[in-house]
Amino acid sequence: MSENKRKSLIESIKDKGKTIEAEMSFFDHLEVLRWHLIRSAIAIVIFTSLSFIYYDFIFDTIIMGPKNPQFWTYRMMCIVGQKFDLGPDFCIKDIPFNIINTDMAGQFTLQMNSSLLIGLIFGFPYLLYEIWRFIKPGLNPNEKNSASGFVFYASLLFILGILFGYYIIAPLSINFLANYTISSIIQNQITIDSYLSSVATLTLGAGITFELPIVIFVLSKLGIMTPTFMRATRRYAVIVILIIAAVVTPTPDILTMLTVSFPLFLLYEISIGVSARVDKKRRKAIGV
């Protein structure tokens, strides 16, 4: 065998060894990720099981809360309405619709789905913790320091969003839709699936929306989002937020609209600040 052929064979063997090593590393990472996901799933199953066991309280107090005229949000609206003389329409005394079940297994499915929903909500912070544990070893020291509060802030924003969606968006939307009629001969008979879907969508949607600063942080780190772009599009964001507030509020008064829209405005401004901070650090790192 000539010298050139021997060198070529050695290089091929080395390249093959590197490829095998890279493939093993990839599958090792998959195995690590699998265990992180398994632990997250176990936590969600535990919370789901607890929700299933204590379902009477969850259904009567939590799920059916926005249907009850004595719900915290409605009571606060009555107090505010009386204090500022906003009129009788601002104080909600009745939610005019009946909830029915039309499927044989509807109530059992309701218990399973809503228990899983509660399990996902309570297990979400632990899921974030497991994701952070997976990506942390691949970060350099500066990235670890800048993202050290990821789990805390992401969990805090998610919880605040859930509370905002459950106590503000969901009850106002349900009251608006329940009182919206096109004819007096039509009676609102709402299926339990439709009611649960509405409450879950509005509540989880708010929780996910409140993750906007975290999303902006990641996009800014990747160089996709800049504070200049967000400031330039602020006017459009204001219009979108006002439209959302107008849709979910039960009355056209400005106070209720501001109650819904203010946290969303604040969220957008916080996101601009987050993006500006990331952009400043990146410019400082490259000496600009």
UniProtKB/TrEMBL annotation:
It comes from the Bacteria. GO terms for biological process: intracellular protein transmembrane transport; protein transport by the Tat complex. It is a multi-pass membrane protein. The chain crosses the membrane at residues 37-55, 110-129, 150-174, 194-220, 232-248, 254-274. Part of the twin-arginine translocation (Tat) system that transports large folded proteins containing a characteristic twin-arginine motif in their signal peptide across membranes. PANTHER family: SEC-INDEPENDENT PROTEIN TRANSLOCASE PROTEIN TATC, SEC-INDEPENDENT PROTEIN TRANSLOCASE PROTEIN TATC, CHLOROPLASTIC-RELATED. This is Sec-independent protein translocase protein TatC. It comes from Arcticibacter svalbardensis MN12-7.
